[in-house]
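Could you help me review a protein record that somebody else here produced? This is what I was given.
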Amino acid sequence: MSLVLDPAAQDLLFREARTANTFTDEPVTDEQVQAVYDLVKYGPTAFNQSPLRVTLVRSPEARERLVRHMAEGNRPKTAAAPLVAILSADNEFHEELPRLFPHFPAAKDAFFSERAVRENAAAMNATLQAGYFLIGVRAAGLAAGPMTGFDFEGVRKEFLDDDHNPLMIVNIGRPGPDAWFPRSPRLTYEDVVTTV
């Protein structure tokens, strides 16, 4: 059975998509980011909790503050990318559940009254949404460079608060010269899938 999605779209989103390490200086607009969000917000999460939060780092001052928290190898590309996004999990996502899960507004208190439960749910579902975000960036014709090589606590203190945990930092833009490392191998279907 073949996929329904057009092969060119499959290539754009998956087969030809790569983690970009260099970018052109073409700006990434707020309209482009809005279009990405307006697409990926429909990706499913448990209880429609939608805990992903996105902090766009645009100003030179904020970029300088962020670069200080990046691992050494990630600093130059983060300093040069047209746009950088900090993706984080909102541990207080449950406050939005009466609006986001209206057919069962009591879910807020019935399932998420305890902080530890919320932190676990927020981390899992915001990470899922981060994957949607990366696909959305690709769907916009842009390249994404997701990174987890940074001081998580430093970024949290610098840009977030105690209710938000950083998940990854994503450089966004049009790929520049020598943007790609060689494609790494992937596991086969047989390596991954077990039937019981």
Notes: The chain is about 40% helix and 15% strand. The mean pLDDT is 96.
